[in-house]
Amino acid sequence: MTAVRKAAIPVLLLMLAATSIGAQDLASFEERTHTRVLDNGLTVIILERHDAPVFSYATVVNAGSAQEVPGITGLAHMFEHMAFKGSDRVGTKDWNAERAALAKVEEAYAAYTRAKSAVTPDAAHVELLRKNWQDAIAEADKHVANDEFSQIIDRSGGVGMNAFTASDMTAYFFSMPSNRFELWAFMESERFRHPVQRQFYKERDVVFEERRMRIESSPFGRLSEQFLAAAFIAHPYGFSGVGWPSDLHSFSATDADVFFRKYYVPANMVLAIVGDVNPAEAWPVIEKYFGRLPKAPAPEALRVVEPPQIGERTVTLREQSQPIYMEGYHRPASTHPDSAVYDVLAMLLSSGRTSRLYKTLVRDQKIAAVAAGFNGNPGEKYPNLFTFYAVPTPGHTPDEMAAAIRAELEKIKAEEVTAEELQSVKTRVKAGLIRQLTGNSGLALQLAIYQTLQGDWRELFREVERIDAVTAADVKRVANATFMDNNRTVAKLENAPKGAAK
Question: Is 284 buried (19+), middle (13-18) or exposed (0-12) by CB count in 10 A?
Fold first, then answer.
């Protein structure tokens, strides 16, 4: 999932109708925002908003599917699920007995996978070991207090409890009454102090079902997965974010523990809290509970760099399905100086009913039911894709979508956008950034995301200033540097008659 950038305070929306957020506005936020790095390396941000006796938080871990390697794809998402299973103190009826039972589950699973992977597996022996593994799971399940973590949060007034795994990060969030702050601090720190991989293999089946729903059962999901795999030949952005099927059937609870110990360390995490919180009272509580997380070095940076693309790549699926067209162009990471130019280009070309693609393909030519696009596919931390997609109307084809999209790209490369159109786009980009930051929950998430990906939560506000500085010459320059034939990856889903060869 691609992270969206958004911030809070209704007055900002009014100000943006006429001007950008200036230094004085950032200064007013800085007066109410308190940041501290704990001794174990955890970065904590508190923003005071005393409008109501509630607070929201977001924990962002600087690890997602881009940190996976072949054999464990989908494991970042899998661990997100496991973080709701509790700890050695939450979610168990008898931890000592459960710990021993879980160790037997892993021993049985390792024996089963070794036998199954043999060059000439003995079917009867494999089946016996599979049964031993399933029996061990059943024994371990006797010690589980099902859904105890979630139930405690629900009983204490917590709302909106959820999480997501993206290519670049994993995030956890919900809101609670302010008078439950200490309980929240215990619960949120507890699941990262000593997570337990209880019911791991049952949950692995749930994750595999998610893959079936999102990929196998979705034409767009199937096409998108193949599109990214073609566009990235070295970088893990080309992996399936939800996981390849064989990995989802093979990685283990032991693998999840290894992933946790490497990436879920305080130095690789950011916690942002927004709402009715008094920092003077909150810091001792945060130190007491989150200070328990063991100190460890941050994981090494990802080494692999996607090589420059030197020729167009094309993927074609032929199915009995609604035709779909996609094309993408490699672009720099969100920290690049031209990132704001790409935001403007996306709004100008492909975002909403006022965009050029919508007006041409959908409104005027009526050859597409949908024509849109976006940056940050599948993530933003590393160089990624500026992606366009279109769904043809009956009687029209993916190739017609390609021709129409290319015509619009050639226009933006050849002619400078007018001052009026550029100003309109800037206004809409800025409004979009701010409109989605009006609540405590959204603001907490975006503060944590910006601190994680940009190194400073203040970049949330500075981004608006960068968008204001974009010129028509910038738009033309970046379009010409990006929308080139040898930088393009195409994915087409063509409708195949029943019985036709695929």
Answer: exposed
Say how many C-beta atoms besides its own lie within 10 A of residue 302's C-beta: 12
Tally of residues, the chain:
502
Structure tokens at 258: 């290894």
For residue 93, count other CB atoms closer than 10 A to its CB.
12
Kind and range of the H or E run holding 181: helix 181-193
298: tokens are 């941050």
Structure tokens that stand for 103 in this block: 């160790």
pLDDT, one tens digit per residue, over 257-281 is 999 999 999 999 999 999 999 999 9
Task: Classify the C-alpha dihedral 349-353-357-360 as positive or negative.
Answer: negative
Q: Tell me what pLDDT residue 251 has.
A: 97
168 token code pair: 């670049």
Alpha-helix runs per DSSP H in 321-418: 339-350, 356-357, 398-414
User: Could you check whether the bond before residue 378 is cis, i.e. omega within 30 degrees of 0?
Assistant: yes
Instruction: Assign 26 a pLDDT band (cuts: 50, 70, 90).
Output: confident
Mean pLDDT of the chain: 92
Strand order in the sheet with 313-319: 313-319, 488-495, 324-331, 384-392, 368-377
Please tell me the predicted confidence (pLDDT) of residue 11.
32
**Residue 357 in contact with residue 388, Cβ under 8 Å?**
yes
Helices (H) and strands (E) counted in the chain, each on its own, are 19, 11
Under 8 Å between Cβ of 371 and 377? no
pLDDT of residue 499: 63
- Which is more confident, 23 or 434? 434
For 174-183, the pLDDT digits (tens) are 999 999 999 9
Closest CA to 49 of 270, 271, 273: 273
Average pLDDT over residues 278-294: 98
Choose among 453, 432, 450, 457: nearest CA to 32: 457
Q: What's the order of all strands across the beta sheet hosting 159-165?
A: 33-37, 43-48, 269-275, 54-61, 170-177, 159-165
Give me the half-sphere count of Cα atoms (radius 13 Å) on the Cβ side of residue 64: 29
Average pLDDT over residues 182-189: 98
CB 375 within 8 Å of CB 342: yes
Reading the block at residue 144, the tokens are: 């589980």
Percent of the chain exceeding pLDDT 70 equals 93
Answer positive or negative: Cα dihedral of 232, 373, 347, 475. Answer: positive
* CA angle (501, 494, 246) in 5-degree steps: 70
